[in-house]
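Predict structure. Input: mRNA (guanine-N(7))-methyltransferase, 1057 residues.
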Amino acid sequence: MLNANARSFVPQAAGDHGAPHRSNFYRYLLMLPTIRKYDATKESEETSGLFQLLTKRLLCSYSHGGPGDDALQVFTTTFFSNVKNAGYCSGTEAPTGILLSRSILSLTGTVSDICAISAAPGFLVRVEVPKECGAEVAPQLKAAWDDYFWTLREDPRVLAVGYVGSFCGTSSSRRYAGTHRHYFFVSIIIPQPEDVHFFQTALLGINFHPLRITEVNAVASFACSMQVPLTVVVSIGDDASKKLLSDGKPDRSFFVSLYPCDVSRTLSSLKEYETHFLSLLKEQNDWPKPTVVHVNINIDYSHHVGTLVCPVFDMLAFVGDLCDDTAASVSGVCVSDTTLRKEFGVTLCTEADGWFLNATLNYVLAAGRSFDMSSTCFGYVPQHFRRSITFAQYEYAHKIAEKWLPVNCVPVPLNRMTFAAAAEEFSKYPYYVRSKTVGANVLLITNSEGDVFCVDVKTGSISALPDYFRGLGGRAKNSVFSAVVASSYRSYLDYVIIVEDILSFEEADVRELPFPERWFYVEKCLLDNYASRPHTSPNRVAIVRTIYTVSTQAERLLRNPPAGHPTLGLVFVPHVTNCKEKDTSVYSWIPTSSTTAVFIVGDVENVHPESGDVKRAWLLVADSGKNTMSYNNEYVDYIWDSAPELRSGSVIECVLKRSDDGSHWWELLRGRGPDMGYQPDTFDIVERLVHVPGLTHKEMLWLLDAAKYRCGRCHNVSDVGRMNVKHMAYWCKKCWSETGHGDCLYCGRFCVMGKNDTLNQHFYCDNCWGTFSATNLKAEIGYLAPPPENASFATHVLTRCASLLIDIITPKVATNDVLEICCGGYLLRKWIRNKTARYIGFDLKSSVVDAASELISSLRHEMTEMSFYDVICADVFSANFWSHHLTKIHPRQFHVITAFAGFHHAFGTEYTAMRLIESVANALIPGGVFIGCFFDVEPLFAKGSFGNGVFAIEWAADFLPRVGNHFLLSVQKGHFKKVNVVPVDFLVAVGRECGLVVVPKACSTFQGILDNDRGFNKTISSGEKDYLLAMRAIAFRKEGNAQAGIVPTQNVDLNRD
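Output follows.
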């Protein structure tokens, strides 16, 4: 006979033939929607029951292949081979389930058989297979079905068995596109109490591991409903509950108490809720239409038993997991403004994700949402690979986490503030290094049954990992590992849990063991390291161990980072965590170019009003509480196309950028959206990032070799020192100084014997002290440098007097290092005959410099091989000459500095004059000499404007011969030139402050110098005599002598700056 409703061939009535064998099943396909959620528009319609399915042709018989076990096997194999976790789909184009019935289900057949199966109680079994979109589940489901079906098929009490799949999650634009749930169900004859226990035992004995076995009344109607048979609406807090119930009435209401600081009371309340919820499934009849359940979570802080707070999200996870295990759904989670600020601290997801703010029940149900626990972001651990956790497991994991979270080591960042302490520890103890994984820090906890639990370090959220990790739990029972959950490069939903250390092994604390012994326990668990992890894996998450190496090979880790997951920087773990003196620290290093901070977006505005391509997001950080505040009115500019979803309340991560002048700015790295659980950095944390620079790559590598810079005498670390060959140990600069050694300021030799200068504590080696007092015995005293051809009277006398001044000082001081200011090149021959080894002259005129350079080349044969002579064009009175230019050309100090011409140029202001004198003093060795010549206008000032046949002077009416003033001078009827006043008293006073004392023998007028010159017999006129009396030479000697004995120098900062 042909059953039009079933759309397939149906065998004849039972009366035509003998009764079918008890193991014979009729095959049916279920054409249910993939996504089953509450539809408020069909509230009055009956959406469940086999009659409804047959009427709407959503239950279709399948007779291909005929009767028998072989045909049944082909049927199930064909069906399950096409089962997949498909993407977002709400249609009924493909079968979503199967029903195997011992009776024929037809609208023209025996109605009692349909009613019996529809109303029969039974069990709903949730199968543990991957639940994310695109996962390969067909082989696992087929194997589980075979075990399940062949266990039940021979039992005469079984009326029907079946499979149904559903999809939870209503957003198609997510990275994680919802959760796929797979269920087996069995309808049985109304059992006796002992029959219920019998079936539960039988189902628990199946080879595959079910997530939950639930007793449900009218299980076929429940599992094969066109809508979700039971939907839950959650409210958090009394305010949210009152608002929710202000418009709408649920079928049932349950109350759950959350005690954040008392996990035992919280779990007791959840157990009570679970009991009531499961009782509802057993008591409800026929499921004619969806049942709406309201669950109000009341948060009570009155009990303080533990230190680890139980997050509200973990309670939501219990509610959601119970719905997932029983084919129910959560239509939404409602919060109030008060709860939002107090419990979450940030903006929640949108209503499309199932979150509602100040919403009513009718509004939530009309929205038709489906709250998906696996795609809900909370904290930093992805939710899609977690599985349901029992109350006993949660309480155990919470107890262990409460013990180990406070002692879980957080690496100390390497920066300028921690560098000194890190250098001290790196020099004392061996360190091991690993790549710093980018991800969420977690604790992995195993129990005595081999279950593995994951604890988010930042939020304290606890979840159970899938059963395929029981291998780790079996090899390391009752153990605690420190790990990181990181995104894998293999697929956008793949993650890897990288074990980085072990805290406890089989209930024994192993933290104080040397690191190699601790790590042996990790390797004992037979975990692959991340480099040898199998490339193909059916699971979305894998547990591997990190790779350690000795700290000296850190550069190799940086050059060859892991290829399977993201890393940023390095982590250094000490050989011994606890030592006799103090606890050693774990350090982390992040490149300075990769420093990031997490902010919440304030206002978002256009940078250019006429164009919206460039946006500006103002940055907010957390204060001491859960409130947000502006971070110094700083912002980040970004291109809108790079982050179109960014809006006020979004959590973003920004890279800190710096310029050479010390300023900084932010660049957008990534945005997380306004997801719950992601917290911004506090104001203090961001301030430290900005104002305490990290270590450069070069500084980090130096730190790894800190043991080489540990002083063998004082045992401090310093990069300023050298090897002591006598003691075969490295000595720091302080120890060298305390033993009479130091860095010679003159010759530049390092850690040599010597003494400090009594004037300014500068150190000079013994050899240099000897050269400071050595005179040029081979100097040609009496040689006068010839003046240039056609030289004027002023140039002639200047050349002769300068030569005589050099003869005066040469027998008394060393003259091997000479600096001549405004040299002119006239005295080069004199210095060469004086046997000066090193000479540098400066002049502002390039023509003078060129002529002097040619003269040096022509006189090279008169110099020794070690002589160095050079003339350079430069402005010696500029601000940076002495501190920058001169030190590059001639880094050591000078024996003699002269300014025979142009000395007055430095006296334009009092500041420039003092700067020159101070610079000259710093450039002289102890005992060095400075000679300067200038026109002294002070004796002529009383005569008023003065002039004769040789020179003439003029000045303003208010002129005074003080520093900063000038007069006009004309020599031999030439042009009047501006000349600055050089007051002798000012010059002597400033020189005394700089450690320069007058050399009386070399201080005289040109007339006085020539009077003492026996070789000068030229008759001079009265005008020339007046000029010679006005020209004055002055000489200073720098104070300073070697200190007697070994005197320790001032305290030196031994830590590298």
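Confidence is low (pLDDT under 50) at residues 1-21, 1046-1057.
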